[in-house]
Structures are given as structure tokens and as C-alpha cells.
Amino acid sequence: MTDMRPVGYIISFMVMFLGIAMLIPMVLEIASQTGHWPVFGKSAMLTILIGGLVAVASKNGVPDALNIKQTFLITTGIWFVLPLFGAIPFLFSELELSVVDAVFEAMSGLTTTGSTVLSGLQDMPRGILLWRGLLQWIGGIGIIIVAMVFLTELRVGGMQIFRSNGLVSFDMTLPAATRISTQISVIYVILTILCLIGYMVTGMGGFDAVVHSMTTVATGGFGNYDNSFAGFNHSTEYVAVLFMLLAALPFILFIHLADNNVMHLLNNPQVRGLLATAATLAAAISFWRFAQADEISEAAFRKALFNTVSILTGTGYASDDYMQWGSFPVTALFFVGLIGGCAGSTSCSIKIFRYQLLFASIRVQLRKISNPNGVSVPRYNGQSVEDDVLYSVISFFVFFIVTLGVTSVLLGLAGEDFITSVSGASAALANIGPGLGDVIGPTGNFSSIDDMSKWVLTAAMLIGRLELLAVYAIFTIAFWRA
């Protein structure tokens, strides 16, 4: 029988950490003298108390290393439990949110999805806005650590390739996980500070710069205004593009970069693939807009670049209503969101490396058709790819498509229209943020959809953030019998 004490111990510590984070907006509210500080004071006290009690109860069962089953449970359990506690400040606040709305907002924050049920953001207490930013910032660093420490070991969706090719190589001991987590966290903080400075230099106010730097580096997309990035100046958009791309790169490569090994970054196929995809799609949408307007303008290029990078990386900011750009940009941006950034980044969706492995496998199959007697194996980053990696990647694609279809059907059964159902399922499962259409598009939000739809989307955000199979595995009989 699985010893659940290590699972409870680690999750409880994360809950206590979340409770301590609630003290930050509380201090802001006290300094602002708005009277909203008790919301976060009560939330922090309740969260820390519950987390502390569970930690004390499970402390005597913590081993030096975790087995595979415990790792699966911890990975899924953290992203299931933390949003429940992250929703408490929304429930205690003057926003008067329902339970489903509060959990939806917290899940969207911690999974760095960026979908929201809130409107009138610019008039809300600053503590709430800061809390939304903190949720995404915490979720961003959390998913990098989960991806590079746990998912590589769990062989989820082909992630084991980053263990076998030398990018990641640790055992499942807690000290090893702590070591790599510390390195990644330092880089994450440095990027956030640099982004903050960039925003302030280009004219963004101090508070806005703090919140948006956290949600940019987390590729989350929560902002302080209903019109997202539309109200900021031109140079600020370019700063956002830079840091959205940096946050979508593999953070493990920044460690190599810190060791003056620049070639690890420049020669990485994921990095080249991400930058090439962003440049190609931004150029294509720009040319479309130039042709439609019969005029070449910097504004059209900038908005095409910004929104393409935002959707590609799963950030979800919008600097314009791209639903008005025409059929090609809308269609392109829908599929752009299903690409995503690099593995081991804060970005989301399917990820660049899976497409590269899939195309490598397809090329090999085509060669075998034309030359049945030839010997050809798929290669990635100069190394041959093992069959189990390809099976994992193909399985991920199948599960993603099936889950997308099921989620869309469930939203349709809940009463949503076709565009809302399909784009909403895609936005949640790929953790993009905005969907398409007038309801959940770049100028709308998710407040008006049915409560059942919100629960479905909340579940889809969790499943998508943890790369599907990490969640599905724990619902199999074989998992519990192992």
C-alpha cells in the first residue's frame, strides 16, 4: 500500500508557502489604507493553519526519496489543492464571487492560463490584482520545476528525452530536486526583475510593472486592465515580446548560459524552432494585414508580432481585437495556440519539441516507403530517438486531441455555442487564456458562461497544465495495483 505521508507532507508545505504569499497583498492593502487587508489576513491564517496541521501529521513518514506512484500523486495533488486555497481571498473579498468563479480564477492563475471571470479590473483593490499576479508567478516557477524534475522522470509525453540526452540527469532524491529547483528559481527571479525594469523604463507605472512582470515571465497573461495591453505604449509591447519569448525558452539552458556555454542555447532545436515559428507566423499575419489595408505600417507589424508571440507562448495578452483582422489571422492564431513554447519553460500547450519529434518520425516513415531496405532512424538534437520516446509523444497527441474533443462536446452539452465550445476547450487545455468569438474572445471574459462549463474548463486547465498523462495515470487500476 502506498505511503501517503510524503505526499501530504510536501503538498502541505506548498499550501503553507501559498498562505505566506497571501501576506504580501495584505501588506500592500495595509500600506494603501483601503481597509481590504483583513481579506488576506484571514485567508493567510486559515491556509497556513491547515497546511501546518497536515505537515505535522505526516512529518514522521517522509523518506529521502520518492517512488514513482508518490511522485505522480504529488504532481497532480499540488495543482489540485493549491487552487482551492488560492481561491479563498476571492471568496472573502468584496467581489462576491461564487465558489466556481473563485476556483476558476485561482486555477487559471496557478496554471498560468490567463482566462478570467473578472471585469472592471482597473477599479478593483490592488491587493486582488497583486494576488492574481502572484498566483501566476508562483504557478510559472512551479511548472518549470515539475517539468524538469518530475515529468522527465515520469516519462510523460516524451519528456524523458531531456533526461536521456544529458540536459537533465538527477535521481529522484529530494536533495537533488531541491538543487535544480534553486538554480531555476534564481534565474526566474532575475528574469522577473529585468522585465520589471524594462517595463518601468518604457513608461509603465510601478504597480503595473510589478504585476505585469510577474505574469509576463510566467507567460500567464493576467493584467490590471480589461483591455489587457491595449493601453500601454509601443515600446512596452516590444519589451513584453522579448520577455515572453525568453520565458518560453528552456530554463535549463539558462543554467548553461550562466556557465558561459552560449552554444547550448543557440544550437538547441527547440529554441530555433520557437523563434522560427514566431517569426514566420508574425510575418505572415503582418503581410495579410498590409494587404488588407493596402498600407505598410509599424503598428500593424507590432500588433501582429505581439499577439502572435502572446498566443504562441500561451501568455494570452491582447493589444488589439484580432477577431477584427479577418479570417486568416483568426484561424492562424487558433492553431498557433496549439503549438506552445519549449519544454522546461513557463509556456504551455503541446510544445515545440513534440512537433519536431513527430515530424522526424514522419520523415523516417516516408523514407522507409520509398526505400524499404534502407536503415533510417529519427534523430533529435543530433541523437537517435528511442522508440519509447516516440510512443510517448504519439500517445500525447492522441490524448490531447481526444481530450479536446470531449471537452468541446461537454461545453456544447452545457449550452455553449460551437465557437465558444471549441475555442474555450482549446484555450483551457492548452492554457492559452482567451478563446475566440464575442463571448470569450480577446475583448471578452468567461463570466457569462454556464457554471457547469466553468467546472469543465477548470478541470481542463489542470489536465492540460500537467501534460494530460500525469493526471490520467492516477485514474487507472494498473496505477494503484503497481
Care to describe what's here?
It is a single chain. With 482 residues, this protein is an all-alpha fold. It is 67% helix and 1% strand. It is built from 23 helices and two strands. It has a two-stranded antiparallel sheet with strand order 1-2. Helix 2 (23-32) packs antiparallel against helix 3 (37-58), helix 7 runs parallel beside helix 10 (206-217) and helix 18 packs antiparallel against helix 21. It starts with a helix and ends with a helix. The relative contact order is 0.11. Mean pLDDT is 88; it is low at 164-173.
The backbone outline, from C-alpha atoms, is globular
The SSE string, one letter per element, is: HHHHHHHHHHHHHHHHHEEHHHHHH
Number of helices: 23
* Oligomer category: single chain
Terminal-residue CA separation? 9 Å
* Structural class by helix and strand composition: mainly alpha
Unreliable stretches: 164-173
Strand content: under 5%
Helix content: 55-70%
The strand line-up of the biggest sheet is 1-2
Mean pLDDT: 88
Largest sheet: 2 strands, antiparallel
Radius of gyration: 22 Å
How many strand units?
2
